């Protein structure tokens, strides 16, 4: 577990690093802004969460576990927010690597907890170090900086999915092989998971941007900024719904193409059987071992049977060609 702490006092010109032992005094001063970032939080951190911050035990349990969906809960003196963020390296992954980002937002403190590195947190940490005036706007504004980058990182993902769907549609029309079925199912799985995240995350950002009474921890002048992050997720959810419809249509086209391909195979086999049927009949008739079969004793009987079979086969083949069945 790695814990880093930034503190900005009224007398400081820039945020300074602090230690866990300094936390109680920093939190007790309402004019001091504190940001605590915890990487890979575990049971050993309960002392900080319950002892220093006085978080509810159920909240701590939720923080230590993985949340299935984003959520927002209000407690006395702080908000508990769970975001789902794209992890670093998602561009090269065939899966959809999403990690929990737990955020505790109070009037003078911000606590972030995550099990893996999250780009939006690192970006905000770098920004407030370089530009102290960003942190002076309050912990709610720092939370916005995190949410803004977090939401924007989903837009390149939607563009990547758009390209994958276009390539899939082209492949279905050119070569609808069995391998495409796995690609379609993988895309459906990604989009379904993304929909669960998007719907809940959009609602969380919407509540943060509204002027509800339960959101009094977020100043009025900061709420419009969350609207920008909310708009990003409105776009993500809308695109996701469109993609799901396209992938469903692609599945139907794929099954239709497979059915058409099977019908073509069955048609060819049926026509071959149709051509062979009279030939089998002729061979069967002259394969009988009756003594009173004049054709068996004819000098040219064998060649005549072959001629009849060839003429019959060529006749059927020509007929099928004219009908464009072959």
List keywords for this structure.
single chain; about 325 residues; alpha+beta; Beta Polymerase, domain 2; Methane Monooxygenase Hydroxylase, Chain G, domain 1; 2 domains; seven-stranded mixed sheet; 7 strands
Explain what you see.
This protein is an alpha+beta fold. The protein has 2 domains: 2-257, Beta Polymerase, domain 2, CATH 3.30.460.20; 259-322, Magnesium transport protein CorA, transmembrane region (Methane Monooxygenase Hydroxylase, Chain G, domain 1, Up-down Bundle), CATH 1.20.58. It has 10 helices and 7 strands. The protein has helices at 23-28, 46-52, 57-64, 119-130, 132-136, 139-152, 154-174, 179-209, 223-285, 301-322; strands spanning 2-8, 16-17, 33-39, 71-75, 78-86, 98-106, 109-114. A hairpin with a 2-residue loop joins strand 4 and strand 5 (78-86). The model has no long low-confidence stretch (mean pLDDT 87).
């Amino acid at each position: 577990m790695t814990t880093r702490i930034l503190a900005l006092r009224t007398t400081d010109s820039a945020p300074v690093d602090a230690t866990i032992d300094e936390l109680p005094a920093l939190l007790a001063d309402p004019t001091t802004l504190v940001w605590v970032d915890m990487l890979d939080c575990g049971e050993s951190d309960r002392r900080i969460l319950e002892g220093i911050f006085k978080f509810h035990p159920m909240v701590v349990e939720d923080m230590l576990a993985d949340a299935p969906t984003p959520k927002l809960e209000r407690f006395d003196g702080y908000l508990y927010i769970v975001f789902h963020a794209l992890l670093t390296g998602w561009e090269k992954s065939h899966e959809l690597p999403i990690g929990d980002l737990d955020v505790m937002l109070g009037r003078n403190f911000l606590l972030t907890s995550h099990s893996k590195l999250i780009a939006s947190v690192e970006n905000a940490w770098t920004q407030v170090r370089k530009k102290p005036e960003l942190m002076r706007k309050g912990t709610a504004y720092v939370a916005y900086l995190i949410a803004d980058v977090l939401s924007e990182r989903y837009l390149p993902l939607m563009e990547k999915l758009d390209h994958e769907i276009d390539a899939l549609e082209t492949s279905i029309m050119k070569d609808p092989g069995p391998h495409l079925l796995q690609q379609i199912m993988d895309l459906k799985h990604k989009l379904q998971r993304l929909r669960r995240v998007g719907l809940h995350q959009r609602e969380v950002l919407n509540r943060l941007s509204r002027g509800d009474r339960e959101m009094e921890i977020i100043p009025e002048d900061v709420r419009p900024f969350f609207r920008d992050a909310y708009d990003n997720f409105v776009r993500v959810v809308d695109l996701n719904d469109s993609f799901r419809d396209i992938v469903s249509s692609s599945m139907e086209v794929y099954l239709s193409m497979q059915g058409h391909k099977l019908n073509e195979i069955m048609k060819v086999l049926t026509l071959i059987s149709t051509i062979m049927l009279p030939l089998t009949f002729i061979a069967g008739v002259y394969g009988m071992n009756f003594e009173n079969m004049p054709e068996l004793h004819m000098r040219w009987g064998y060649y005549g049977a072959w001629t009849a079979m060839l003429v019959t086969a060529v006749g059927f083949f020509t007929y099928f060609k004219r009908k464009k069945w072959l």
